[in-house]
Amino acid sequence: MSEIDEEMLNDFLVEGWEQIETLDQEFVHLEEDSEDVKRVEGIFRVMHTLKGGAGFLNLPKLESITHHAESLLSSVWQGELEVDQGLIDLLLETADMVKSILGSLESEMTEGTHCCEELLERLEAANSSAAKGGSEHEEVTTPEAEELEIEEAETPMREDTEFESEDNQETEASPELKEMEAFQAQLMAALDKPAVGKAEESGKVKSDSPTVEPTARQAAGKQIRVKVELLDKLMNLVGELVLSRNQLLQLAAAKENPGMEVACQRINLVTSELQDNILQARMQPIDTILKKFPRLVRDLAAQTGKEVRLTMEGEETGLDRTILEAIKDPLTHILRNSIDHGLETPSDRRALGKTDHGTIHIRAFHEGGQVTIEFIDDGRGVDLARVRERAVQRGLLSRDEAEILPDREVINLLFQPGFSTAEKITNLSGRGVGMDVVKTSTESIGGTIDIQSKAGEGTIVRLRLPLTLAIVPALVVICGKQRYAIPQVSLQEMVRLPSADMIESLYGGEVYRLRGELLPLLRLRNALGLDCKPPGDEVNIVVIRSDDLTFGLIVDDVLDTEEIVVKPLSKELKALNLYAGATIMGDGRIALILDVAGLASTSRLEVEEKRHFRQAKAAGQVEDHPGQSLLLFSLAEQRHAIPLSLVSRLEEIPNSSLEMVSGRPMVHYRNMLLPLLDLSYELGQGSSLESEMLQVLVFRNGDKTLGLAVDTILDVVEQDRPVQSVGGMHGLLGSTIIDDRAVALVDIQGIISGAIPDWLDSEESGPRSRRLLIVGDQSLHTSFARSHLETQGHRVFAAENRNALSHYLENGEFDCVVFDLGMKEAADLFGFLKKGWPDLPVVGFNQGNASFDVPHNVLAVYGRTPGELSPQIETACSGLVMGGAA
Amino acid sequence: MSQIIQYTTFYLGETYLGIDVLQVREILVRQEMTPVPQSPAAVLGLINLRGQIVTAVDLRRRMGMPPVQNDENSMNVVIRTSEGPVSLLVDAVGDVISVNESALEPTPDNVSGPARKFVSGVYKLDGCLLAVLDVERLFPGEARGQAA
Q1: pLDDT tens for residues B63-112?
Q2: Is residue A478 part of a domain?
Q3: DSSP of A691-721, one letter per residue?
Q4: Per-residue buried b or exposed e for A217-241, using 16+ beta carbons within 10 Å of the residue's own CB
C-alpha cells in the first residue's frame, strides 16, 4: 500500500466502523426473517460503500472481500440464493473479517496480515453455486457447507430452526450470470444517484436500515459529525457558565437594580437552556450498545444450545456518553448472565410447558430524571435455595443464617464477589466481570441495580442510571468553616433537633430515634477530624442512605440544594475515600463533595452494622422472639437488658460480705462463696461493686453459681421491638427500644465465657466428642443448649424443620438427637423422626410445656431456664450414648 | 549532541531548585485555599484556578523540610503532570535559566531523604548548585491511589 492520505483514511474508518456495526444487527434480523429483502438491500449498500472506499484508498483485501460479499448479496436479493444459516454465518464471518481489517488500518495503517484467502474462496464458491444453479449444485460442495454440517451436529438447538444443511444453497431457478451483473449495475446506479457527497452517502446508508421510519431517513442528512473533545470542551465551558451565573445571581440579589435583575433572570434562563441542550448533544442513544446485542445473543445462544428471542424497546433513549461508556460491559454481562443462567434449554422449557425459545426483553426508558434499563427474561428465575446453599458452601453465611435471611437479601448475595450459582463454570460466565463488578461500576456512576425474580417465571434486572455525571443536584452543608456538598441521590431527609439531649449514646455510638427506628449517627466533624466545637444547641441531621445503609450525618448547618458541577480530585485525594470530587460555588470558592459511602465505611459504620446485625440474628437470641421477657438494669446510667430466662435469681447482697479471693470478687451467699463478675467493669464502664447494697443477678450452671453485679436492677419488661446493632461493641448484642428509650442488650454468654472461660463447661466434660443434632426452632433454649453442647466439644448441628431434619439424617451419622419438645409442630416432627430413624437415641427437653404426649421410652429432661436445661441435656446425651455403646 | 534546556527556578530556604520550563504552566502569588480534611500533610488545599480545581502541595513538606514560619510570601508554581495541574508552594521564585543538558550531573551520593528520590540531577552554576526536580516522581501517592 502506497501513501494513504491519513485524513481520508480516518474518515473512511469512522464511516466504516459505523456501518459495519449496523451490519451485525441486520444479519441477525435477516436470519429471523429471510423474506425481508429490504434488509438485503441495506447490507448490500454497506458492502458497496465499503468497497468503494477500499478501492479509492487502494486497499485490495478489503476491496475483494466486500466485492464478493456484494455479489453474493445481490444473488440473494434476486432470489437466486435463499437465506439460510450457512449464508448468514458466511456473511457474519465476512463482517468480522472486515472488522479486523479496519482494526489493523486503525492501529498500523495497513490492512494487516489477516488471512482472508480461505474466506474469499468460500465466498466465491457460494457465489458460483448461486450462479451455476441447481443442476450443477451437487458438484459444488463448498468447504463452508461441510463445516456447517459439523456445526449443526454439535449444536442441537438448531434442529428446530428452518436450517436444513447445505441443500438450502440450492436455488430453484438459475438466471444467467450476465443478468445478475446487469442487475447489480442497475442497483449501483440507483445507489449512486443521491450520493452527492460522502457525508450524505453515509447518512443515506445509515438511514436505510429498514427499522428506521422513512421520515427519519431524510433527517439523517442534516446531521454533522462533531468531535467528542469539542463536546467535552463545550460541556466544561457551560459548567463554568453555570458557576458564573450563580455568582452573578448572588451579586444581583445584593444590588437593588431592577434592570440588572431582569437581565440576570434572562441569563439565568438562557444558561439553563444552554446547559440542557449541551447535555442533549452529549447524549447518545443507548442503541449504540444495544445494537451489538442481537449478534451477541445469537452467538451465546449457539454456544449454550439455547434458543433465545431478543426484543428491545426504547433503543433511542439517550444517555450521557461517559455513562454509556461505563455501562457497556455491565450491560453485556447482564445479558450474558440472563442467557447462561437465566434461560433454560429448549427441552427443559418444553417440560415446563414454556415455549422452546426463551425471551429476553430489554427496555430502556426515562423516568423521573433517570434512565431505567430493564432486562426481563422468562427463564427459571433465581433459585433462592441454591443461592443459600452456595452462600453456606462459600462460608458467607452459616446454615442457620442462610435459613433466616429474607429472600430479598438472598438475591443481593448474587452481588457478592465471585458468587455464582452455575453448577459448572462455562466459558460464558466468569469472563471478565461478575455481578459484583456490575454493581460496583453501576454504583460508581451514581446508579443503582436490583434484581427481581420469581422462581420458574423469570428475572428482571433493573438498572437506574443518572442522565449525566457532570452536573448533579446536591445539598450544601456547613461543617467547621467549610462548605461540603452531598449528592442528592443519597439524601433521604433532614432532621433538625432543637437540642442535643434527644441524641442517645451507647458506648460512644450515638443514635437518634427516628420515628421509632434507631438511626446511627455520624458526626461529620469527627469523620473529617475537624477540631472545633459545634456552634449551638441545635443538631442538624442529614439522613443518608447509601448501599443499604441508612445513617444520620450530623453537620453544623444546612444551606440549600444547588446544581453543582462535579470536578475530579487528584488521585491522592480520591484515595482518601471521603470525597467524590469538588465543585466551585457561586462565590468562586471550592467545596468538597462528600463520598457518603466512603464516609460510612471509613467510619466503620457499614461493616459493623451488617456484621453485627447478622450475628444478633444468627444467635437467635432476641430477634425472632417478640414478646420475650427482658430483665432491665442500669450500668453507668445506661439501660441494659438480658433475657430474663437466663437468670435464676436476683439478689441484694450487702457490700460488707464482699471478699477478694485470689483476685476475684466473691460474696457469701447461702453459706457458700459466690464468685462475682462486675458487669460494669467487664463492659469498661467503671464498677458496680461500690454501692452499699450490691445488686446481683445469679446464674446457675449445674452445681455452679455465678453472680453478676450491676448498678441497679430496674424492671422486667416485654420486649417487642426488633434488635438493632449500634456498631461493634464488646459484650453487646445490639440495642432495642423499650418504653421509648434505648436499651443495650448484653451478650451475657460472651461475657461469662470471656471472664471465666470454663464456667459454662459442665463438670464432667471429658474428651467425648459426639455428633449431635438439635431439633428445635430458633428459641433461646435451643441456642443456649447448642452453644453449651458445643463448648463441651461436641459437633452440633441444628435442624428447624422436616426438610433440614431429613437432610441431616440422610447425609450424616449422628450419635444422638436432641429434641425440643416445646417447639411448634413438635409432635409432627417427632413422629417423623421416630418413623424414619427408630433406633436413634433421642433426648427430649422442654420447660414443662411439651405440646404433645411424649412417649415414655424417650428420655426427657425438664428445666425452667436454659442455664438449668443445657447441662441436663448434655448429661442425658452422654448417658444415652454411653449406655447405647455399652 | 548537547541541548539547551530552560529551567524555571525557585527557592526552598537556601536550596535552589529547577523544573523544566515546559512542565510549568504558570506562577501565581499565594491563593486562597480550601483545606481538605484528612488529607496527607503535604496537601495544603485546593485552589480555584479559573474554574479548574488544582491541588496545592507544600513542596517543603514533600521534600522533608521544616515548614517556614511566615508563608505569606510563598508562591505557587503550577506544573503540568499526567494527573492534571498541581500547584507547588515554594518560598520564592527565581529566573528562568538556560543550561546545557550535557552538564547535568547525577545527584551526589550523600544526598539522602526524600530529596534523593525527587532530584534527578544537579547543575553546577556560578556560585551555586541547581537541583533539578523530577515532577512525575513528586507524586508517588498518586500512583498508589491508582492501584487502589
Answers
A1: 888 877 777 788 999 998 877 789 999 999 999 999 988 888 888 888 77
A2: no
A3: SSEEEEEEEEETTEEEEEEESEEEEEEEE-S
A4: eeebbeeeeeeeeeeeebbbebbeb
CATH code for the domain in which residue A653 is found: 2.40.50.180
CB pairs under 8 A between A and B: 76
Mean pLDDT, to the nearest integer, of A497-507? Answer: 81
Q: A716 and A734 share a domain?
A: yes
Give the whole-angstrom CA distance, residue A660 versus residue A688: 15
- Other C-beta atoms closer than 10 Å to the C-beta of A676 total 24
Buried b (16+ CB within 10 A) or exposed e, A107-138: eeeebbebebeebbebbebbbebbbebeeebe
Q: What is the CATH number of the domain that holds A781?
A: 3.40.50.2300
The answer to whether the beta carbons of residues A380 and A344 sit under 8 Å apart is yes
Facing B51 at nearest CB: one of A240, A575, A592:
A240
Q: Do both A191 and A47 map to the same domain?
A: yes
Q: How many domains does chain A have?
A: 6
A575 touches chain B (CB under 8 A): yes
Which CATH number belongs to the domain containing residue A452 in this structure?
3.30.565.10
Looking at residue A404, its pLDDT comes to: 79
Question: Rounded distance, CA B54 to CA B48, Å?
Answer: 6
Look up the domain containing A162 and give its range.
Answer: 6-212
Question: Do the Cβ atoms of A371 and A465 come closer than 8 Å?
Answer: yes
ipTM: 0.85
Whether residue A133 contacts residue A111, with contact meaning beta carbons closer than 8 Å, is answered with no
Residues linked to residue A795 through DSSP beta bridges, in sequence order: A771
The grid coordinates of residue A616 equal 444478633
**One-letter amino acid of A769:** S
pLDDT of amino acid A184: 59
* A303-318 pLDDT tens trace: 888 888 899 988 888 8
Kindly state whether residue A93 falls inside one of the protein's structural domains.
Answer: yes
Enumerate domains of chain B plus CATH numbers.
4-140 (2.40.50.180)
Tell me the pLDDT tens digit for each residue of B17-48.
Answer: 999 999 999 998 888 889 998 888 888 899 98
CB of A530 less than 8 A from some CB of B: yes
Which CATH number characterizes residue A265's domain?
Answer: 1.10.287
Question: A413 lies in a domain?
Answer: no
- CB distance B51–A239 less than 8 Å? yes
pLDDT of A215-260, one tens digit each?
A: 444 444 567 778 878 887 887 788 778 777 877 887 777 777 778 8
Interface test with A, best of B32, B33, B44, B48 (most A CBs within 10 A): B48
Q: Among A555, A579, A603, which residue terminates a domain?
A: A603
CB pair distance less than 8 Å for B145 and A567 = no
Q: Does A584 touch chain B (CB under 8 A)?
A: yes
